[in-house]
C-alpha cells in the first residue's frame, strides 16, 4: 500500500451529503493512520466537519481562492466526491499526484488521472457506500455493508441516558419531497397527547413558514432560527428521536446514534435506497401504495414512534410494521 501524507476529500454541497461522506474519511484513516485528512467544503459545513474525529482540517471552498488553496496544500491525492470543474482544474494546476473523479463528468477527462466508472444516480448503493468507489484510484477495492457505516462517521455519539423529546424538522431546503406541514402539526398533537415533548427545528426562514400552523406551549416548543449549526448538533444528541424527510439533520441524528425516522417515497434516485438515514436506530417509512409522501399519515408515524419510545436508549429487536424498513442494511 502506497504511502500518503496528505489527502483532500472534496465535497462542496450540502450538510447531509457531508455527513454521508464522513465514513469514507473514517475508512481512509483506518488504512492510513498517519495521513493528514483535509476536507474541502463550503463554510456552512464547518461545524459538522470540526466534530468529526477523522478530519484534521477544513479548507473552505470559494471560487476565488480554490486555486491558491490547493497549491498551498502540496497534497498527495484529492478525491472529488462532489464534482466541480473549477476544483478539478485547480487540482491539476496544483500538480496533485492522484486526482480521482468519476468517469461520467467530461471535465474530469483532462483534469483527473484516475477516472472511476460508476453512476450515482442509478446505482443500487447507498450514497455513503458510493463514495468508496472512488478509493479505487488509490487501489483500494472495498465497499462496506451499511451495517458498518455507523462505526465510520466519527461524530460524537449521544449519551445513553438523560435524553428526552422528539424533534420534528419540517424543512429540507429543497433536498427532498417534503411531508405536508399539516401532517407535522397533527403528529405534534398526537405526541403531546402521549406526554412527549416536541421540538420544532429549522432555519429562521423555515420557521416563518411553519410557525403559524402550530399551537406552541410547554410541550410543543419552537426552536427554529434559535440554534447555530454547532448548537443544533448538540441539541440533537440531547433528544430521543428526530423525524424529517431526507435532510441534513436526519443524517446527523442517525450518525449521532439517536432515533432517526425518515419519511421517503420509494422512487429512484431520491428514495431511501440511496438516501435513507444509516444508523443503529434509524428507520424509514414509505407510503404504502403510492409515490406520494403525503400518503404517509401522522397516525402511521405516531404508531412507529410509540413502538420505539422507551426503547431507544439501547439497541433492540426492531418493530416492523408494513412499509417500515428497520435495519441499516435493509
What is shown here, in short?
The protein is of the alpha/beta class and 330 residues long. It has helices at 15-31, 46-50, 66-73, 85-93, 127-133, 181-193, 204-210, 229-237, 248-256, 272-275, 298-308; strands at 6-10, 36-41, 57-60, 77-80, 98-102, 114-116, 166-169, 198-200, 220-222, 241-244, 259-263, 282-285, 324-325. The protein has a seven-stranded mixed beta sheet, sandwiched between helices.
Task: Describe what you observe in this structure.
The structure is a single chain. The longest helix has 17 residues, at 15-31. Helix 6 packs across helix 11. The protein is of the alpha/beta class and 330 residues long. The chain has helices spanning 15-31, 46-50, 66-73, 85-93, 127-133, 181-193, 204-210, 229-237, 248-256, 272-275, 298-308, and strands at 6-10, 36-41, 57-60, 77-80, 98-102, 114-116, 166-169, 198-200, 220-222, 241-244, 259-263, 282-285, 324-325. Strand 1, helix 1 and strand 2 (36-41) form a beta-alpha-beta unit. The strands form two sheets. The protein has a seven-stranded mixed β-sheet with strand order 9-8-7-10-11-12-13, with helices on both faces. Helices cover 30% and strands 16% of the residues. It has two domains: 6-152, 3-Layer(aba) Sandwich (Rossmann fold); 166-325, Glycogen Phosphorylase B (Rossmann fold, 3-Layer(aba) Sandwich), CATH 3.40.50.2000. It has eleven helices and 13 strands. Residues 311-330 have low confidence and may be disordered.
Amino acid at each position: 500500500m502506497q504511502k500518503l501524507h496528505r489527502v483532500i476529500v472534496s465535497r462542496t454541497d450540502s450538510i447531509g451529503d457531508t455527513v454521508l461522506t464522513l465514513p469514507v474519511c473514517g475508512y481512509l484513516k483506518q488504512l492510513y493512520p498517519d495521513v493528514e485528512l483535509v476536507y474541502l467544503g463550503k463554510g456552512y459545513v464547518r461545524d459538522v466537519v470540526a466534530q468529526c474525529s477523522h478530519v484534521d482540517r477544513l479548507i473552505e471552498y470559494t471560487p476565488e481562492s480554490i486555486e491558491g488553496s490547493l497549491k498551498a496544500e502540496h497534497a498527495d491525492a484529492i478525491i472529488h466526491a462532489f464534482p466541480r470543474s473549477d476544483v478539478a482544474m485547480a487540482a491539476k494546476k496544483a500538480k496533485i499526484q492522484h486526482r480521482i473523479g468519476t468517469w461520467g463528468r467530461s471535465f474530469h477527462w483532462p483534469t483527473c488521472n484516475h477516472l472511476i466508472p460508476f453512476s450515482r444516480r442509478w446505482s443500487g448503493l447507498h450514497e455513503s457506500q458510493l463514495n468508496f468507489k472512488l478509493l479505487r484510484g488509490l487501489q483500494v477495492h472495498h465497499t462496506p455493508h451499511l451495517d458498518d457505516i455507523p462505526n465510520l462517521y466519527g461524530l460524537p455519539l449521544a449519551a445513553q441516558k438523560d435524553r428526552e423529546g422528539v424533534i420534528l424538522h419540517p424543512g429540507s431546503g429543497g433536498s427532498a419531497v417534503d411531508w405536508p406541514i399539516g401532517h407535522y402539526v397533527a403528529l405534534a398533537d398526537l405526541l403531546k397527547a402521549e406526554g412527549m415533548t416536541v421540538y420544532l427545528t429549522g432555519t429562521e426562514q423555515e420557521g416563518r413558514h411553519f410557525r403559524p400552523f402550530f399551537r406552541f406551549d410547554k410541550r410543543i416548543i419552537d426552536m427554529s432560527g434559535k440554534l447555530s449549526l454547532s448548537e443544533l448538533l448538540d441539541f440533537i444528541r440531547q433528544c430521543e428521536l428526530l423525524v424529517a424527510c431526507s435532510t441534513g439533520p436526519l443524517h446527523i441524528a442517525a450518525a449521532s446514534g439517536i432515533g432517526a425516522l425518515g419519511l421517503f417515497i420509494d422512487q429512484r434516485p431520491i428514495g431511501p435506497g440511496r438516501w435513507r438515514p444509516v444508523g443503529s436506530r434509524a428507520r424509514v417509512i414509505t407510503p404504502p401504495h403510492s409515490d406520494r409522501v403525503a400518503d404517509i399519515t401522522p397516525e402511521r408515524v405516531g404508531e412507529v414512534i410509540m413502538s420505539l419510545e422507551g426503547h431507544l436508549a439501547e439497541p433492540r429487536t426492531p418493530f416492523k410494521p408494513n412499509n417500515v424498513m428497520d435495519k441499516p442494511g435493509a
